[in-house]
Specification:
Elements: H1 2-7, H2 10-55, E1 64-67, E2 70-77, E3 81-87, E4 93-100, E5 109-111
Antiparallel strand pairs: 1-2, 1-5, 2-3, 3-4
């Protein structure tokens, strides 16, 4: 192998390498981009869900809610996760729960309306 390479002029070898690189470089760049996007897919999905939940006017930070039938308060809504305090009967925090934003859709959350009276229902 060394004898064959030595017999080929260096300019021809360099030209051949450059020709091969020119042909396969776009393909290689495309493969690298696809691999990076696949690695970041879940993070991008979580960020978009976080933005969507944050922009949802039905639930805001500091809202008192029923989370799966238990009294709770939304403390913060971030890009990746949402922090919710579980409250006792006196509305004092007893535990904190953290949910990834892409799982918030699976939770049963009900907003408690302040100042709502049965007579308002018309």
């Amino acid at each position: 192998m060394i004898l064959i390479v030595a017999a080929i002029p260096s300019d021809a070898l360099t030209g051949a390498i450059i020709s091969v690189v020119d042909k396969f470089l776009p393909l290689l760049i495309g493969i690298v981009v696809v691999v990076i996007l696949l690695m970041l897919k879940q993070s991008i999905f979580n960020i978009l869900k976080g933005i969507g939940f944050r922009r949802n006017l039905n639930f805001q930070e500091d809202d008192i809610i029923l989370l799966n039938g238990e009294l709770a308060q939304i403390v913060s809504i971030g890009l990746f996760k949402t922090k919710i305090y579980m409250l006792d009967s006196n509305k004092k925090p007893k535990t904190a729960r953290f949910f990834l934003n892409y799982t918030v859709d699976t939770l049963r959350m009900e907003k408690i309306l302040n100042g709502y009276k049965e007579t308002d229902k018309k």
